[in-house]
Amino acid sequence: MPPSRSSFRLIYDHKYKTMDNTDIEILLVEDNKNDAELTIRALRKGDVTNNIVHLKDGASALDFLFGKGEFSARNTNLKPKLILLDLKMPKVDGLEVLRSIKSNELTKKIPVVVLTSSRENPDVETAYSLGANSYIVKPVDFESFTQSICDLGLYWMQLNQSPIL
User: Which CATH architecture has domain 5-158?
Assistant: First the structure.
């Protein structure tokens, strides 16, 4: 049964600097505020998930996943069920984040979907060679973007059977 909209919670957002140590369903790593808001709105509209963590750069994502820096008190046993990862970000780019996730025993089984505006073949090739589970180019128009995110969330959160993390 899908979660209800009323139970949706953004459990961490970089602008609020608070963290609820609860189950994380989706880790959204996106530096573009508008794209992040549209993604969260689309997931909410599709009743796909309850708990989303939004981080705005790759360095914060790595700190979050590995319990470092401002996330040193976070229980790293609570892993996201899915990571939506942009590529072109400040501090640490998405490919480096992906490399770190997939080369670590504790995080390598977490599904990572690259969600980016880059159609460049070297980015696609590198992402898959580093272990990306999917590579999606963000649609430009709002309706297509919303539908793509809803479909993506439905597949990864409700249809796909992932290993126990």
Answer: 3-Layer(aba) Sandwich (3.40)
